[in-house]
Amino acid sequence: MAATSEDISGGISEVNSKGSGSVAAAAAGQWLIGGELPVNRMGFGAMRLPAGRWEGPAHDPARGIEVLRRAVELGVNHIDTAAFYFFEDIAANDLIRKALHPYADELVIATKVGPGRLPDGSWLDPADPAELRAAVHRNLRELGRDHLDLVYLRFLTTDGPGGDRFATLAALRDEGLIRHLGVSSATPEQLAEAREIAPVAALQNRFSPLTREHAELVELCAAQDIAYVPYFPFGGAGAPDLDVLRRVADRHGATPAQVTLAWLLAVSPAMLAIPGTSSPAHLAENVAAAGLRLDAEDLAELAALVDTDG
């Protein structure tokens, strides 16, 4: 039986007060990546497992493993990672393998390749085709897999066309090492170029209540059955402390972070949320947002958020 609004609100309040995680990721509904891989629309991003920032300090690896296992227990079956998510000797891919291997059949792991990253967070030059092949094999080794479910070509803001690099990933897909392809931090032109080479199953670009410059791409993705997977769902610096978010949150017995995630899920059926954390309590809070349903009044109030100071 489907949960009622009262059931969902009660579950969110329980999570917020007790950290029990009574609302599961499945409450957000499902999406088929590439038309065939079902995932719950509330997922998990592994970027913050090694450290909260590129420059550290390091997070406890044991707690990262705990968070990953708890995420799966709460119904998360879409985990987003990258080989360049690391700090010193702690790497997100290693934590995922240690926590979850052998992987459940329904677990979809997405990763990104493109530029390398130095320990201080600065990016190297974009990978050439040979380096991209090496990066895919590195992810396979680190994750302990014989194929990758979803691989994004990650662009830098200084990148121009990337057709030759995307074609390299398409060739690896044809070889059976990759099931589906995506692009990340891509312009409309880069997305269009990639789609001329091979099907694009997902786009991972920035999007949040405060950063909506890619709204047209969100609409395009929904129309073309492409998943839109926003990074920095809170804008990049934690949930913004704005009056409008607090007002909506108070009406639902929720938190501003939960309202932000619920807003993302309400914006488009193609939206897949991947909030990241190294905290079990924050994980439970984030996943509980899968059950928060914003009404027309909430959405109207939030629609003008970028035009106000809260």
Automatic annotation (TrEMBL):
What are the record keywords, sorted?
Oxidoreductase
| Species whose genome carries this gene | Streptomyces kanamyceticus
Q: What is this protein called?
A: Oxidoreductase
User: Which PANTHER family does this entry report, sorted A to Z?
Assistant: AFLATOXIN B1 ALDEHYDE REDUCTASE, ALDO-KETO REDUCTASE YAKC [NADP(+)]
Q: Where is the NADP-dependent oxidoreductase domain positioned along the sequence?
A: 41-305
Q: Per the record, GO CC terms?
A: cytoplasm
Tell me which domain of life the UniProt entry assigns to the organism this sequence originates from: Bacteria
- Tell me a Gene Ontology molecular-function term this record carries: oxidoreductase activity
One Pfam family cited in the UniProt record for this chain: Aldo_ket_red
